[in-house]
Amino acid sequence: MSASTTLDQPPPPAAEPSGTGNSGSLTAYLGQNLRQYGMMAALVVIVVLFQILTDGKLLYPNNIAALIQQNAYVLILAIGMVMVIVAGHIDLSVGSVVAFIGGICALLISEHGVPWLLAVVLSIGLGLVVGAWQGFWVAYVGIPAFIVTLGGMLLFRGLAIVFVGTTVAGLPAGFNDISNGSLPSALGFLADLDGLTLLIGVVAIAGLAGAQLRARRALLRNDLRAEPFAAFAGKLVLAVLAIGYITYLLAKSAGGTPVVLIIVAGLVLLYTFVMNNTVFGRHIYAMGGNLPAAMLSGVKTKRVNFMIFVNMGLLAGVAAVVTTSRAGAAVAAAGQNFELDAIAAAFIGGTAVSGGIGKVTGAIIGAFIMGVLNMGLSIMNVDPSWQMAVKGLVLIAAVAFDITNKRRAK
Amino acid sequence: MSPILDMRGITKTFPGVKALQDVTMTVARGEVHAVCGENGAGKSTLMKVLSGVYPHGSYAGEIVFEGQPGRFRTIRDSEERGIVIIHQELALSPYLSIAENIFLGNERSRRGVISWTETNKQAAELLARVGLAEPPDTRIIDLGVGKQQLVEIAKALSKRVKLLILDEPTAALNDEDSAHLLDLLRQLRDQGITSIIISHKLNEIAAIADTTTIIRDGRSVETLDMRGAEPVSEDRIIRAMVGRDLAHRFPEHEPRIGEEILRVENWTVHHPIDRTRTVVDDATLTVRAGEIVGLAGLMGAGRTELAMSVFGHSYGSGISGQLHLHGKPVTIRTVDAAIAHGIAYATEDRKHYGLNLIEDIKRNTSAAKLRRISRFGVIDAAKEITAADRYRREMKTKAESVDVPVGKLSGGNQQKVVLSRWLFAEPDVLILDEPTRGIDVGAKYEIYEIINRLADAGKAVLVISSELPELLGICDRIYAMSQGRITGEIPRAQATQEGLMRFMTMEKSGAAR
């Protein structure tokens, strides 16, 4: 740009920092990412607290496996819910949808003799159909999602009762193993530790470390800002220790690696990738952040909205299978309050109420915070009513923390 | 006579930034006092100190109001003393009536029960004082921005205002409403109400201010007596604002004009809700490669509506007419298709229709053409950062990195991100709607240079602007619009402000079809 005028701008701040020497101070970095670390720290604090309060019972190997199996449904639903909320919507129907699809799944198996694996596929397909139904009203007719899914909540609960009656039982062992079983000990044992579980743990750690290092190297190679090395290394070491410890506990548990852990982990990886690295994910954030601006940037907002609900339906289908398998039967009253658990997990995990901000990993942490609370309080024999009350308080506290933190940043 | 307000040695520090440094300002009783300065110079901060938004104790220095120290801890404190601030974004409740808004927080009531007779009667009296002839029970949402502004002033009067502060009061107003508002300020001055007005519009300041204080980089650099023997010119004010001589407000540019790229023919657009209303009426225009074409018009002339309807029907209903690109007829019905055909539209309203303020620079830069940096729907993060960083450097966007949220940038830098986005989309036709709105003088110059470079790169540029000097300064050819129709086309050499204004105010009956 020619600078031969009398209107020269004052010289730009020296150095024009963009990449070189790219490591801001550690404290500044942590300050900016307080929310993210705050929730992780909260989870650690809660785990330690209950570990003490329950005399070390919380982290019994079998409890860790049970924690994952009991909460698999929230983890799965929370992934879809984050996407829905980031886009500026809400889905109140997922609990009813879980009951409805779970019921159909059980009926297919026990009354129509459909092989259970095929029934699982059909259930997930039904989830897509349910999602398309709701997505149609939200995206193409323009009814607020709150209304559409409130309607869906009643509609699918009603249908669940119509089809299921009260209970459909008598499901095959293979199906029930999805949520109750573990991977076979194919590699034998190392002392009292399950070999396959150890292998999975090692692969997970290697994969995580490899991916993180590669991403960081790519940033540095292109002369771009990366987080300070201390923060990077610290985070990585903590993550490795956490995975290592969980692996150890699971390897020590009665079954080894729960089947459902593999499903959940796969979904978390897949959807983290979708939200961070794909055009679809980017469009969701863009629409949640500023809808008219997204439209004027060429985002096909109707189609994206439709797909978000189709996706939520798909995950509700998966959650239905997992829930039915866990119970060993379909119950018309299943999935009660699941939508609220998923919404709470998303908000505790830092999703913004106004949309545009939220992470899959955050919602997973949110779901675990609630799961650990539940389990810890159960071990302590606290009445379930009190458990519910505590969860409510935690939800408010998490969002209050978020809001005051944001205000301070201004 | 003692001054009504004396601010001495005001220093306000934010973490890492000195927003105000030893600012001194004295306002005489019964004057209109203008405060000028570039964006980010500290004008708004100063007014927030004065009105108690930043409480006493959070800044250094002293405020003396009517001879008494003013130590305001809240806005209420300052209002009790008669200081009322009207912000640029009006603070009215849209579904409440005028009367309810005027007395919001200050209800005419007895023991908690509202007296509607009193409310409406007193509101009517206040409305008469500001010259607004609407019934007091009209809802705010049914009023235009100009009238809403008057309601704000009526509200201030209801609080027995002695010092009225207006932050960019005419930024969103058309010329007629602006003139009315300035008139009102004069009347209020005659009734003894002092006002402080923050404005970017130098001609207004020249017209209405008795005194002007100029703030630059957080310091009060000069106080000009506007009613002195020697008239103060606009250039004089600009010089003080930017702290350097202003030989040219517009960069020199020698156009190299090529083939016709965009042709809009017999373009007619109707209102999206009221389909019987014609918003753009049989408009025809062309833009050639390397050419900067202006589109002048008053508010409501249909300029933005024309541009947005061309941009993939993003505005309007019942659109008819023919688009040609590079001489070939095309049909473009979606924004996505418009972008794919090489049309870009940078909105006049960055905050609401342009940027995602919570996202960072890189994501805002890449938003309109993710396919450039993705494959099979997967985004290449490194490519994205590299591309965004290239545009940041090219545009000289002042930000530490492309990871900075756009919401934290100044108006000029936000505009550069908007331009980065549309350049990233690699268009042939760029429609820039009010590209320098709300931007300070220095940044405007940079934007003009960018526009020139785009034209030099062979792009067809259509600039919509309400500032006639700007159009005259940068365009090679100018169309004027009035009431949805194109009423004139003038080459740069023959264009004058008066000439354009005649076309811009041409009534329907008077124009040849």
Automatic annotation (TrEMBL), chain A:
Its main location: membrane. It comes from the Bacteria. InterPro entries: ABC_transp_permease. Residues 1-21 are annotated as: Disordered. Pfam families: BPD_transp_2. The keyword Transmembrane applies. It is a multi-pass membrane protein. It is found in: Cell membrane. The keyword rRNA-binding does not apply. GO terms for cellular component: plasma membrane. The chain crosses the membrane at residues 37-54, 66-85, 92-110, 116-142, 154-175, 187-209, 229-250, 256-274, 304-322, 360-380. CDD domains: TM_PBP1_transp_AraH_like. Keywords: Cell inner membrane, Cell membrane, Membrane, Sugar transport, Transmembrane, Transmembrane helix, Transport. GO terms for molecular function: transmembrane transporter activity. Part of the binding-protein-dependent transport system for D-xylose. Probably responsible for the translocation of the substrate across the membrane. This is Xylose transport system permease protein XylH.
From TrEMBL, chain B:
The keyword Manganese does not apply. It comes from Paractinoplanes ferrugineus. It is a peripheral membrane protein. It comes from the Bacteria. Gene3D superfamilies: P-loop containing nucleotide triphosphate hydrolases. It is found in: Cell membrane. GO terms for cellular component: plasma membrane. Pfam families: ABC_tran. The keyword Disulfide bond does not apply. Residues 5-242, 262-508 form the ABC transporter domain. Keywords: ATP-binding, Cell membrane, Membrane, Nucleotide-binding, Repeat, Sugar transport, Translocase, Transport. The gene is xylG_1. GO terms for molecular function: ATP binding; ATP hydrolysis activity. Its main location: membrane. This is Xylose ABC transporter ATP-binding protein.
